[in-house]
Automatic annotation (TrEMBL):
InterPro entries: Solute-binding_3/MltF_N. It comes from Devosia ginsengisoli. The keyword Signal applies. Residues 104-329 form the Solute-binding protein family 3/N-terminal domain. The keyword Signal applies. Transmembrane segments: none annotated. This is Transporter substrate-binding domain-containing protein. The lineage of its organism: Bacteria, Pseudomonadati, Pseudomonadota, Alphaproteobacteria, Hyphomicrobiales. Keywords: Signal. It holds the Pfam family SBP_bac_3.
Length: 331
């Protein structure tokens, strides 16, 4: 488990102002090349993100994936112009740098969580979380190390002092809250409706009485629909793929579920369907989102990360990373 080292002063070197990424892949005539992901792989990908937060065992828990194929698919698709909303209180934008010096930040992550943290075909650790960790260190101007651990060992490694921060999708549950402190949320996980493309412009969330809404059975999003749309017909499916395909086939009027996971499916089905209406943020149902875990009491590192997140949102760097790694934006 070798450490990947970066310098806060020389993070990007001669590459310019952005971290390394795959170059655009183009086919004949300059058209964007497509990298097909078979149904079975996409199914495993969606199961890789249990709802409402990752870190549980739902749908098989965390599994190893062919990360390079997914990364090529995502990075070969033009991004839709969309920025991240502010996830923190507006007053947090005035946060001041910590007076306690932070000489370095030792980030821990995993290598099985595309498109957040995984290895490319050459073995390099890449992903949204990896790029974000580098940007945090560059913003704070400190040395940065990133080490990949197996998922089942990552939280224990943080608790044992093997690192200063864990950026790997650890759930902000009550159980984990008793063990770790967390930074501000850097990526919230809304619920969203998906309809056929022809219906997007006509969609009205207040006019769903009698309409069929496809959901994943037993999910928090099923709870949302039954609670807030009691007059809608709920069609329950064993997987999100099956629920989304019901919309594609015309067997359901809309899908409601985790927007990020739906965006992966939409990336391969843009001619069929798309997001309709607005995102729904319900932390009590869908989870608090993604944040960086730190050992309890390590306020200097936590404060430095929070300060960097505010700065990265303000200067557009966080939006840039989001657009790079999520071609089909889910906000």
């Amino acid at each position: 488990m070798g450490w990947i080292r970066f310098s806060g002063m020389k993070l990007f070197g001669a590459r310019g102002p952005t971290p390394p990424s795959f170059p655009p892949h183009r086919g004949e005539g300059g058209a964007w090349a497509r990298f097909e992901i078979e149904r079975g792989y996409l199914s495993r990908l969606l199961r890789r993100f249990p709802s409402p937060l990752w870190g549980g065992n739902e749908g098989g828990g965390r599994i190893w994936l062919r990360a390079a194929a997914l990364a090529l698919t995502l990075l070969a698709t033009p991004a839709f112009a969309q920025s991240l909303p502010y996830h923190s209180d507006p007053s947090a934008r005035e946060i001041l740098p910590s007076l306690t010096p932070v000489p370095a930040i030792r980030f821990l992550t995993t290598a099985d969580f595309p498109p957040f943290n995984f290895r490319d075909a050459g073995g390099e650790l890449i992903g949204f979380n990896v790029d974000l960790a580098k940007r945090i260190c560059a913003e704070v101007n400190v040395a940065c190390t990133i080490q990949a651990w197996p998922w089942e060992q990552a939280a224990s490694a943080l608790g044992e002092g093997q690192g200063d921060a864990l950026i790997a999708g650890l759930a902000m549950s009550d159980e984990n809250g008793a063990l770790f402190d967390f930074s501000a949320t850097y990526l919230a996980l809304p619920g969203r409706f998906v309809t056929r493309a022809a219906d997007i412009g006509l969609f009205d969330a207040n006019a769903l009485a009698g309409k069929t809404i496809a959901v994943r059975r037993g999910s928090a999003h099923e709870t949302f629909v039954t609670r807030y749309l009691p007059e809608a017909e709920v069609a329950r499916f064993d997987s999100e793929i099956a629920a989304l395909e019901a919309v594609e086939k015309g067997e359901a009027d809309a899908f409601f579920g985790d927007a990020m996971r739906a965006s992966f499916w939409l990336n391969e089905n843009l001619s069929c369907c798309g997001f309709a209406g607005q995102p729904y943020f319900r932390p009590n149902l869908f989870g608090e989102g993604l944040a960086v875990a730190v050992p309890p009491g390590n306020d200097a590192v936590r404060h430095a990360i929070d300060w960097a997140l505010v700065k990265l949102k303000g200067n557009g760097a966080l939006d840039e990373l989001y657009l790079r790694w999520f071609p089909v934006g889910f906000y």
